[in-house]
């Protein structure tokens, strides 16, 4: 009886430690202001006056808080490009796998979001609805057998990512390029 209780606790503890280690080891976000530690005077010294007058990468609609429109015919993920921001969702998602009216296994997932530049603030203000939509997509995937058998197969993982991305876009719109599956563990009960 103790092993049945201890196993899920150890699983959650391990997932938490793994998520914490990944968070600590995550590289810092790139800044547009130049090399780290350089102040504004040092960065501007000796620069070309014509270049100072040209609009910078922050000019335009994105600088005013509106997401940059995606080029026609391209999915949002392709429009995000290399300037994407990434936001890891703090808490893991726990998905029970039910068989014969009983929880037979548990899947634990850590997710992240690829976002348009300057839109990471949306995640915090919409996180309860976002987690709700993502969890519903995970439950739907589990209920259709998505976490059974070879649940890490390429087609299965692609379907799961697409389902999660649709769910995230239902809440955050085109600011989301894709949902990233950062960690996934299935523990049999």
Can you walk through the features of this model?
43% of the residues lie in helices and 20% in strands. Strands 1, 2, 3 and 4 form a 4-stranded antiparallel β-sheet that branches. It is elongated. The chain has helices at 2-25, 40-44, 49-53, 76-80, 121-143, 154-172; strands at 85-88, 93-99, 102-115, 176-188. It has one domain (2-24, 74-188): Tetrahydropterin Synthase, Chain A (2-Layer Sandwich). With 189 residues, it is of the alpha+beta class. The chain contains 6 helices and 4 strands; from the N terminus they run H-H-H-H-E-E-E-H-H-E. A hairpin with a 2-residue loop joins strand 2 (93-99) and strand 3.
N→C terminal distance: 12 Å
The biggest sheet amounts to: 4 strands, antiparallel
Radius of gyration, Cα only, in angstroms? 21 Å
What structural class should be given to the helix and strand makeup? Answer: alpha+beta
If classified by CATH, what would the architecture be?
A: 2-Layer Sandwich
Count of separate structural domains: 1
What fold name stands as the CATH topology? Tetrahydropterin Synthase, Chain A
Percentage of residues in strands: 15-25%
Count every beta strand, where a strand is a DSSP E run of 2 or more residues. 4
Q: Any idea what the shape is? A: elongated
Low-confidence stretches: 31-74
Number of helices: 6
Rounded mean pLDDT score: 74
What is the CATH C level class, in words?
A: Alpha Beta
| SSE series | HHHHEEEHHE
Summarize the amount of helix as a percent range: 40-55%
